Amino acid sequence: MMNKQLILTSALTAVLAAGVSGTVVAAEKEKCYGVAMAGKNDCAANGHACAGQAKVDHHGKEWKYVAKGTCEEMKGTLKPM
Questions:
Q1: Distance of CA 79 to CAs 4, 9, 16, 36, 66, Å?
Q2: In angstroms, rounded to a whole number, what is the distance separating the alpha carbons of residues 38 and 51?
């Protein structure tokens, strides 16, 4: 019985920690349009539903997560072009 409680507590702690760390990462990054290379976009855009499906380099509707504040240095925009 003690082992089941320990396993359940450990699993719950891991799930909660993963959720918190994902929120911190998301806050430090922003979507940057026009910088993704073909096959290197981060998520749905431009008529498809999955990451890695961009057909051309630097398409204005494809985006990639970048460190906050670096998008314009990379010649991208924060909104779709």
A1: 49, 42, 32, 14, 13
A2: 11
Structure tokens at 21: 């760390």
Residue 41, phi then psi, degrees to nearest 5:
-70, 160
DSSP string, the chain: -HHHHHHHHHHHHHHHHHHHHHHHHHHTEEEEET-PPTT---S-BTTB-STT---STT-TT-EEEEETT-TGGGT-BSS--
Q: What is the pLDDT of residue 30?
A: 96
Taking only the tens of pLDDT, the chain with its 81 residues reads 666 665 555 554 555 555 555 555 567 999 999 999 999 999 877 788 889 999 999 999 999 999 999 999 999 999 998
